[in-house]
Design goal:
Blueprint lengths: L2 E4 L7 H12 L4 E4 L4 E6 L3 H11 L8 E3 L3 H7 L4 H10 L4 E6 L15 E5 L4 H10 L3 E5 L12 H8 L5 E4 L9 E4 L6 E4 L10
Parallel strand pairs: 1-8, 2-8, 4-6, 5-9
Antiparallel strand pairs: 2-3, 3-7, 4-7, 5-6, 9-10
Helix pairs in contact: 1-5
């Protein structure tokens, strides 16, 4: 049976944030809000928790997971960022974007795109996520909370608890946070490429 925390969307309670971080550190799978939609997340180094997320969403080995980071300095640990990319990231984060970058050796091989060795990186503009990643001290490995056969993410934390209370360890109710996916921008080539137009303004990359 999963735990259920109601965390204030603008002033997250430190006690609940710390409890959530302990659940992540101990191998738990959590549902948490972002600035676009709710997501499934777990500890970066926990293979068992990642496999649990893959079973919940019925994902294959080709699925690209995203590292949700707290700030730009953390990104450089896990992704190769040149000066032009850094300026672009600085102007667009935190925000509703997922950036595809070449991964460093700090990223576990199982998280990488099998051929291109790339990783998705994101800094959401959401106080709950930023508090979680700050307290955790490293990124959260994440994917959108979209159930098998559906195209839109779940939006109601009570419905999430009802559907997944025996499959996840924690549901964080952070209020309504939308249901539009991030915009995905590929920064591995000389010119930025918009892979998916979503909540983030993609005119910045044209």
């Amino acid at each position: 049976m999963s735990q259920f925390f109601q965390i204030h969307p603008e002033n997250p309670q430190a006690r609940l944030i710390n409890q959530a971080v302990e659940i992540i550190r101990s191998g738990g799978v959590v549902i948490y809000p972002t600035d676009c939609a709710y997501a499934l997340g777990c500890h970066l180094g926990d293979k068992g928790a990642m496999e649990k997320i893959k079973r919940i969403r019925q994902l294959d080995d080709k699925h690209n997971f995203t590292l949700v980071c707290r700030d730009l300095s953390e990104i450089s640990t896990y992704a190769k960022v040149d000066n032009s990319n850094y300026r672009m990231l600085k102007s667009c984060t935190p925000g509703a974007y997922t950036f595809i970058l070449k991964a460093t050796s700090e990223v576990p091989r199982r998280l990488l795109h099998p051929k291109r060795r790339t990783i998705g990186i994101r800094i959401p503009n959401n106080p709950i996520v930023l508090a979680l990643t700050e307290a955790l001290g490293e990124p959260i490995m994440s994917t959108s909370l979209i159930m098998p056969g559906e195209t839109d993410p779940l939006t109601d934390p009570y419905e999430m608890r009802e559907l997944l209370q025996h499959h996840v360890d924690l549901v964080i109710d952070g209020g309504y946070c939308g249901m539009e996916a991030t915009s995905v921008i590929n920064l591995t080539e000389d010119v930025p490429e918009v892979i998916r137009a979503g909540a983030g303004d993609v005119s910045l990359f044209n």
